[in-house]
Fold:
Amino acid sequence: MATINTNSGAMVALQNLNKTNAQLEQVQSRINTGLAVASAKDNGGIFAIAQSMRADVAGYGAVRNSIDLAVSTTDVALAGGEAISDLLVEMKEKALAAADSSLDTASRTALNADFGALRDQIKTIISNAEFNGTNLIDGSTAGISALANADGSNTISVADEDLSLSGSIITIATNASFSTATQADNIVSQIGTSLDNLNSSLARLGTASKSLEVHKTFVGKLSDALEKGIGNLVDADLAKESAKLQALQVKQQLGIQALSIANSAPSSILGYFR
Structure:
């Protein structure tokens, strides 16, 4: 039947052309963004999974920052403890020299002055071994904790080590000094005990710092694996999309031609009235 009111051929051609245009728009979006699933309307289920994994990746970023902070704080404490250990060795040398009963009073007094300067330097080191407001060796904190997982439910703790004078680790008095060989000999014994205690403290801090670094490495690998998983879910295959793009562009041109032919069909009716 020949009619000018209804052109079914043009309708079909237009429907196919619109479908091609929609597919072409989708392929162009994938090429522009690099994503096969850029929003929930592309694939709601995959998008939800990817977003959940992205949240975990972001959480592990916070975990790495927390661990970095804890490592830095612990390393500053370690540096302070090692410096104190060196000072104690020097102090023991001074006290041991003063314990010589044949030493004259002037020499022992000079050694005591050196000893006192070294003792006071320990106080200075302790008060300055601080990072981001936290000091693990002055007894001002009970320790620190770093995040261990993406939801914050697990932490890694580092205990403090109070290295203050007259404490349980460094037993030397804050005003320790000597004027006789006997006093100097007693201080030598105290320093020996303090060094043993300090070495144990340094070992604990070193182990804690190493544990934090090991966990940071693991978190980095886990985060990388999650990012790879997200890519597998949502990334577009650009080689495939490029091939689709060329095919759809040809299909679009053919659709336009088909629509043009269908639209010109009613004009043939004029031939019936000549």
The helical segments are 8-33, 44-98, 105-128, 181-234, 238-264. The mean pLDDT is 90.
